[in-house]
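We were asked to recover a plausible sequence for a given structure. The inputs and outputs are reproduced exactly as logged, with field labels preserved.

PROBLEM: sequence recovery
POSITIONS: 175
GIVEN STRUCTURE:
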């Protein structure tokens, strides 16, 4: 029903625009293609790297604590009582288990975060779409796989948007 309404709306806008001697330039875009191409790109990686950095700092802290305990055990093993050695070994084991559990939880969280980032990515893509649409003089941009049954390839700005995103990423890495 929404698709039919959108198609009727677009047709009415075209007819109305032609009656007023205004030309309406309609373009289409395949958002899913763009999302697929940039899903592994720097936009997503940049967002996730901040999260990974925080997670890794805690993992590094646990790892250092484990190393310190192992060094204490190695250096002072001869002078430590049996109970104290067992206590340190137990602490090492606990820290290693905590580290493994933490890393597993964080990997799960990051994988779930990738799915949650899609709305942010789409919002960024829309900004690039708008920039290309304004630059190319389009009045309307339609999502290709929703209400459009047919369009000529000249109307598709998907590759232009991908190119603009890639240029933006290059500028970000240069700075």
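RECOVERED SEQUENCE:
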């Amino acid at each position: 029903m929404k698709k039919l309404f959108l198609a009727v709306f677009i047709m009415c806008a075209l007819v109305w625009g032609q009656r007023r001697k205004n030309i309406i330039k309609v373009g289409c875009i395949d958002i899913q293609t763009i999302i697929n191409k940039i899903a592994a790109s720097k936009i997503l990686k940049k967002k996730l790297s901040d999260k990974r950095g925080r997670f890794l700092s805690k993992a590094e802290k646990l790892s250092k604590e484990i190393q310190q305990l192992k060094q204490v055990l190695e250096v002072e093993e001869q002078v430590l009582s049996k109970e104290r050695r067992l206590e340190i070994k137990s602490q090492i084991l606990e820290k290693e288990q905590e580290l493994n559990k933490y890393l597993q939880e964080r990997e799960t969280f990051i994988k779930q975060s990738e799915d949650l980032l899609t709305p942010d990515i789409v919002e960024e893509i829309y900004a690039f779409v708008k920039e290309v649409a304004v630059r190319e003089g389009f009045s309307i941009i339609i999502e290709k796989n929703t209400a459009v049954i047919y369009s000529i390839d000249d109307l598709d700005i998907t590759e232009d948007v991908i190119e603009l995103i890639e240029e933006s990423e290059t500028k970000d890495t240069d700075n």
